[in-house]
Write a sequence for this structure.
């Protein structure tokens, strides 16, 4: 279709840090159009005045009345339909407690990377952990990214920001002699079976709490992990969610694990591990007694999650390949498992090499004896 240039003069200009702007004057009225490239602006200038499109760059935000607050609320309402409910609630907490109070009043297209950086820095100064700052950044980045895809922004300015360095918690798996002591200390404990299953299956704490009888197939000797129990933002409330990475898995534990599960006295509860009233466990119910036990062993730095690390180390030492271990742990990718436990695998390679050398030496020594 042939397009005609409106009657009047036209020009295109580019200012540092701003999109291209095309200006045309039609019947004494100046019209501006915007775009990411000169060609895009030229195309918009070539259409008839009646069809001049509204700007599809960052200026749209200001012209349509978008503030950060308005956009964040619209993004949460319209663009998170496939996100887990618990994640939406966490996003909403970030919006209401941190993002909107500090950035909400600004026009969406007017916020600068410097302002966002100062916002992150202030959160750190207020005592927020690096992990929490990263969570806040994740919400802001995702919302701004959607604004870019919709043409409301020309770039995601949060990409330019620097986040505080997040310290990765150091793994502290049990040593073999410590495992024996731990097992002795949990004998007869109310949550002995929960700790035992966590140690020898590598299930996450939320997966242990959310384990229900429908997950267990005694005939095949397997456990199907398809959900977990997580604390909500409402005090004292828990709800089922998908496992981490939204990845269900089926594991085949050792026979002893299945025997222990069979022996559990069921008290009309769908949950495998419960309190004395048959109600599901909570984080404090599992964690506080665990901390008392490891403290008594002189291992105060250990976390409940280190039971999972212990399982991973024991599996590798027992000859489990990294791919199978990754599947058992429910990791998103084998590369993550290898990165997390590669040092254990490397130690095993060294020991394997040393073992083979001893075998070679034994043959060599045998040959020398035969020669004499």
């Amino acid at each position: 279709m042939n397009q005609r240039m409106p009657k009047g003069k036209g020009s295109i200009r580019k200012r540092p840090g701003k999109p291209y702007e095309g200006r045309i004057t039609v019947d004494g009225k100046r019209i501006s159009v915007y775009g990411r490239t000169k060609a895009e602006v030229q195309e918009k200038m070539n259409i008839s005045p009646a069809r001049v499109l509204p700007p599809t760059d960052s200026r749209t935000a200001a012209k349509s009345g978008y503030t950060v607050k308005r956009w964040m609320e619209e993004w949460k309402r319209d663009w998170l339909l496939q996100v887990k409910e618990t994640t939406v609630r966490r996003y909403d907490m970030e919006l209401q407690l941190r993002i909107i109070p500090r950035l909400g009043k600004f026009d969406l297209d007017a916020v600068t990377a410097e302002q966002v950086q100062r916002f992150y820095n202030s959160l750190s100064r207020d005592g927020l952990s690096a992990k929490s700052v990263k969570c806040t950044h994740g919400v802001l980045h995702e919302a701004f990214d959607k604004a870019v895809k919709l043409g409301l922004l020309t770039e995601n300015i949060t990409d330019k920001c620097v986040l505080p360095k997040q310290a990765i918690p150091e793994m502290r798996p049990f040593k073999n002699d410590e495992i024996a002591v731990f097992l002795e200390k949990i004998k007869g404990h109310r949550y002995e079976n929960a700790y035992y299953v966590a140690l020898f299956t590598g299930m996450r704490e939320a997966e242990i709490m959310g384990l229900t009888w429908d997950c267990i197939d005694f005939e095949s000797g397997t456990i199907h992990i398809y959900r977990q129990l997580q604390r909500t933002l409402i005090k004292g409330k828990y709800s089922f969610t998908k496992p981490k990475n939204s990845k269900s898995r089926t594991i085949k534990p050792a026979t002893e694990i299945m025997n222990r599960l069979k022996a559990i006295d069921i008290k009309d509860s769908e949950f495998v591990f419960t309190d004395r009233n048959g109600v599901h466990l909570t984080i404090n119910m599992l964690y506080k007694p665990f901390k008392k036990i490891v403290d008594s062993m002189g291992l105060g730095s250990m976390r409940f999650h280190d039971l999972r690390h212990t399982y991973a180390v024991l599996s590798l030492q027992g000859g489990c390949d990294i791919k199978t271990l990754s599947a058992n742990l429910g990791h998103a990718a084998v590369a993550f498992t290898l990165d997390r436990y590669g040092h254990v695998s490397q130690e095993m390679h060294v020991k394997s090499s040393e073992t083979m050398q001893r075998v070679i030496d034994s043959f060599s020594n045998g040959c020398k004896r035969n020669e004499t």
In short: Strands lie at 10-14, 20-26, 29-35, 216-217, 222-225, 228-231, 238-241, 249-251.
